[in-house]
Structures are given as structure tokens and as C-alpha cells.
Amino acid sequence: MLRAVAEMGFEQSTPIQSGAIPPALRGDDVIGQAHTGSGKTAAFGIPILERLRAEDGAVQALILCPTRELAVQVHEEITELAAHRGLRSLAVYGGDSMGRQLDELRRGPQIVVATPGRLRDHLQRRSISLRGVRIAVLDEADRMLDMGFAPDVEAILRECPGERQTLLFSATMPEWVRRIAGRHMHDPVTVEVSTRPEIAEGVRQLYVRTDWQDKVSTLARILDQPEVTMALIFVETKRTADILQVQLERRGYPVGLLHGDLSQKDRDSAMRRFGDVHGRLLIATNVAARGLDIDDISHVINFDVPSTPDEYLHRVGRTARAGKSGVAVTLITPAEILKLRDVERHARTRIEEASLERDFPLPAVSSTA
Predict the structure, then answer these.
(1) CB of 303 within 8 A of CB of 240?
(2) Cβ neighbours of residue 216 closer than 8 Å, sequence gap 6 or more
(3) Closest C-alpha among 77, 54, 57 to residue 137
(4) Which SS3 state, helix, strand or coil, does residue 307 take?
(5) pTM for the whole thing?
(6) Are residues 187 and 222 in the same domain?
(7) Range with the lowest mean pLDDT among 31-45, 85-99, 158-172, 281-295?
């Protein structure tokens, strides 16, 4: 395990890892309250891999995630951690080939990372059994409540053995999450790192005033800056995302798109392009605000002012990860300044005003004599 951790580039544990790993290794149930990007996957992944054995059979650990993107990312990180353990992980989520998942399940993975809806489909088909689950993990439990998965999660946990270890991670603790803990956990150890997302020290927070008709031009001016190496552009609605993609592509910017109406194939393609050197721009609705785990995002740009302070915090948390620096820019129209001040006040942060001329100057044009 130490070898795999070293190969992944980890040098020291995060607070949630330091707090959650020791009791989880002892076999205790754990409630971890920490925001996205705090290292939760390793906090439950390392104990899982230390406590399972390949020879003990299939589906010994179940990890429930609210979104397909998060399920894929957790599966990939678990696979890296398990590189020298002989344990296999499988991601099970809607939009992916049911046939492929059935084939992989027949091979007997020890760890299944799943979204609740697709897992319920497999349970109804009897293509998966949870009778051998020794460890169940609820990742981003509050997000599962927001997305309407509460009944599915309850039903899935009832399919697992009563004598199991349960690890629950959540950024906030709404009443349903507390009820889950009371009904399905045994004397859990609570590890509270932060009750709300924290803005990393390396983030420079800016806002730029613009008019509606100039908003796309202002965005393009920012994207033209040489330091914008990888930008995540947030919008409030799927319609705005579709329109903005067309507008930017007409201006020559290769930009991906991520929102809930896309097929899984299109979402996977957008994520692959985002990681490619030729496609470093991605437009996203809030479906990507939590669970998107990429360390190299240089800029988060709020094309629309977030509707709540928590949305702002989760969006800004996509940059300045793993000790790096980053910039968060919010575009505001005259009517939105009070909305921005409300975000500042409730998020307990300060966003400084920037100007295009001073902070985002036009690129120099070379001339020849």
C-alpha cells in the first residue's frame, strides 16, 4: 500500500485522512464531514484495501456515489491504490453498457463503485449480490439526498449484511444523513474537518463588471490570457451551456460541454477532451461543481453568478488543488452586484474587482517593419 501511495505522489495525509483512516482500519464505522477535494477517496480507499483479501470472494466492498463522474473518478483512484494488492474494482453507473457491466461482474470484482440507480437495476436483475459486503461507503451523502436517491440508498443498504462496516462522508449533515447514520451505523466515530467548503489559500478571487451584450466578449478576453491553461466555465442552466458552447466555437475556441442532458458517451468524451492539450476549456452546469477531481485547473470562471454561497464555494474549490495556485473569476452585470455581495457575506470571503485593461490586457500584437 505504501508503494502505491508513493507512486500516486502523496507526500503527507490530509486532515480527513489523518482523522478517518485509523478508526476505519480498526473496523469502526466512521462519519466524515469534509468538503470535496479534501482527500476523502483515499480516506476510505486505503482502509478498504487494507481490510479486504482477493481470495475472500466477490463484492466485499460497496462504494455509493451520487454521479457518474464521481463514480468513475473514485474507481480510477481505487484502482491505482490497489495496484499491488490483487484486488479489482468495477464502476457501475447509468449510461454505460449494461452488457459490459454484466461481463465484468461475472469476473468477480471485490470492490464495486456504483451510482444508486444503476445498482438497483442490477439488484432487480439479480446480476449482483451484496450478501458478501463487509464495508459499505456512502460518498457525498448529502448530494445523494439532493439528487433524489434517498429511497434507493436505503433499499441498497438493506440488501447489505447488518454486520458490516459503514463509512459515510458528507460535506453537510442534513436530517436525512443523520437518520441514515442512526439507522445503518453502529457507534460511529465522527471526524469533522470542516462544516463548509474552504477556499484554498492559493485562489485569487476576482469579479469583472460587464453588460449582457458584452458577456461573451469579456469571457473571450479572459480566455485569451496566456496563464489560462485549463479553464472550467460554470453556467446556471443547460440552455445557457448549449448556447455558450456555440458562441465560443464560432470564435474559434475548442470547448467541451458537461451537463445532465448529455449521454454518458458525450460526457465521457467531454472529460477526455478537457484533459487533452487541445481541449482545455469546459463549460459545465452544477452537475460538475462537486465530484470533479482534476488538479490542474488554472481558472474557474463563473459566467453566471452562482445562486447560493455554497455553489460559489464548491465551484471555486475546483481550482488551486494539491497546493497549486488558481484564479476564480465571476462575470457580473450591473443588476447582479448585490447578489455577489450576498455571496461574499454568507461565504465569509472577499472577491476583488478586476478590470480587463489592468488584469486581462489584450495580447500584444507583433509588428514587422
Answers:
(1) yes
(2) 244, 247, 248, 251
(3) 77
(4) coil
(5) 0.64
(6) no
(7) 281-295
User: 1, 85 in Cβ contact below 8 A?
Assistant: yes
170 plus 209 within the same structural domain: no
For the chain, percent of residues with pLDDT exceeding 90: 56
* pLDDT tens-digit series, residues 102-148: 999 999 999 999 999 999 999 999 999 999 999 999 999 988 887 88
In a shared domain, residues 174 and 266: no
CA dihedral 202, 314, 20, 168 (to 10 degrees): -170
d(CA 255, CA 252): 9
Asked if 174 and 43 sit in the same domain, the reply is: yes
CA distance 64 to 258: 21
Q: Among residues 153, 170, 192, which one ends one of the domains?
A: 192
Cell numbers given for 163: 454486520
Q: Hey, how many other C-beta atoms are within 10 angstroms of the C-beta on 320? A: 23
* 94 lies in the same domain as 28: yes
Spatial strand order of the sheet with 352-354 comes to 255-258, 281-284, 231-234, 299-302, 326-332, 203-209, 352-354
In degrees rounded to 5, what are phi and psi of residue 282? -140, 125
d(CA 143, CA 145): 5
**Residue-range definition of the domain harbouring residue 230:** 203-359
User: Distance from first CA to last CA of the chain, Å, rounded?
Assistant: 62
Domain assignment present for 367: no
157, 192, 227 — which closes off a domain? 192
Residue 272 resides in a domain? yes
Burial class (CB in 10 A: 0-12, 13-18, 19+), 220: middle
- The per-residue pLDDT for 187 is 95
- The vertex-173 CA angle with 258 and 5, nearest 5°, equals 65
Residue 364 domain-assigned (yes or no): no
d(CA 244, CA 339): 22
**DSSP secondary structure string for all residues of 77-133:** HHHHHTTTTT--EEEE-TTS-HHHHHHHHHT--SEEEE-HHHHHHHHHHT----TT-
Q: How many domains does the chain have?
A: 2
Q: Are 242 and 123 members of one domain? A: no
Q: Are residues 164 and 62 in the same domain?
A: yes
- With CA atoms as reference, report the closest residue to 214 among 301, 307, 333: 333
